[in-house]
Amino acid sequence: MASRLHAHIGTFRQLEILLALYEGGSVKAAAETLFLTQPTVSMQLKKLSEAIGFPLYQQVGRKLKFTDAGIATVQTARQVLQSCEELDMRLSNLRGLTSGTLRLACATTAKYFIPHLLGPFCERYPGIDIQFTVANRQQVIERFEQGLDDFYVFSHLPQGLAIEVREFMPNDLVAIAPAAHPLTKQKKVSLEEFCQAGFLIREQGSGTRFATETFFKEHDIQPNIKMTIASNEAIIHSVLSGLGVSILSAHTLAFGEIYGVKVVNVESLPIKTKWSFSWLKGQTLSPIAQVFLEYVETEGQAMMHQALKTKQLG
Ligand code: PGA
Fold first, then answer.
1. What is the rounded CA–CA span in Å between residue 51 and residue 100?
2. Ligand 1 neighbour 208 (Cβ under 6 A)
């Protein structure tokens, strides 16, 4: 006999709203994700809670704390939505890639090149929706653990997760200083001299920071760290305003001339790292994800190499 629970479990849209609330951490974030107003989100959550017969969450200070019933409903909502996506996948297979969603998540520095990959892909498959999440590394790892996206893009891959990896393209980390700084006039600068100029470093947990710290350790260098700054753009502006020097991905400098920041020719640099696309081992790639991966590994890679050569991309 069919379960009678489905009669109480709320509508599909309410489950979507609940998931958006859980993942976004607030009514405001859920409303933004789903393009709804906050009162609509609150009202639908109230209706869902009434249908379930339990409170789903409580507001504790500024945070939401989900009840056991709330967590159980979130888990079920995920399963329901996943099943619907699988159905959607099969149907798009039958229709031939004209609709569906591709989900990508990347740590901040990858945002400089991913849109260049997506442009031509979206032109070819105009019916496909793209959900592109740019977040700090820790948030992307959390999405990864929950399997929320088709692909995750990193240069410093997360540790301790069983993952599939496809290396994509180089990510050179270069030394930068204000264009007018004496260091930019020298043919070659020693690593010691560069690092004594007052070093601006990315936040703990950033892939750029990990690569830079590893490099300093390997070269037995103690940089004169002046500031920790959790954003490439803010570092570039700080360098520009004379606060110090830094080492950042060359991709952040695609418009270096405009910013008035120059690459300094420091010995042993650039630090060579690579971008990779990754996903959870065992995760079945949707037809859209498979087509995207093939595109990335063929045309996408060729296009990016060309962009790097012609300096359109750092
Ligand atoms: P970021 O880079 O965390 O420094 O932005 C991403 C990565 O290197 O994985």
1. 30
2. yes
- Cβ of 207 closer than 6 Å to ligand 1, yes or no, is yes
pLDDT for 81 equals 87
Q: What is the pLDDT of residues 280-293, one digit of tens each?
A: 998 888 888 988 99
Q: Is 206 in the pocket of ligand 1 (CB under 6 A)?
A: yes
- Which amino acid would we find at residue 281? K
User: Distance (Å, rounded) from C-alpha 284 to C-alpha 89?
Assistant: 11
Centroid of chain to Cα 68: 30
Task: Label residue 74 left, alpha or beta by phi (over 0 means left) and psi (-120 to 50 means alpha).
Answer: alpha
In the chain, what are the domains? 2-80 (1.10.10.10), 85-169+274-311 (3.40.190.10), 171-273 (3.40.190.10)
Q: Quick count: other Cβ atoms within 10 Å of Cβ 93?
A: 13
Give residues with Cβ within 8 angstroms of 213, minimum separation 6.
Answer: none
Ligand 1 binding pocket includes 156 (Cβ within 6 Å): yes
Using most ligand atoms within 8 A of CB, pick from 249, 251, 278 the residue to mutate for ligand 1. 249
Closest to 289 measured CA to CA, from 137, 93, 156 = 93
**Is the link from the previous residue into 158 a cis peptide, with omega within 30 of 0?**
no
pLDDT, tens digit, 9 for 90 and up, residues 103-139? 999 988 999 889 889 988 998 888 889 999 999 888 8
Q: What is the per-residue pLDDT across 192-250, written as a single tens digit (0 to 9) for each?
A: 899 888 999 999 989 999 999 999 999 999 999 999 999 999 999 999 999 999 999 99
Tokens of 32: 């933004």
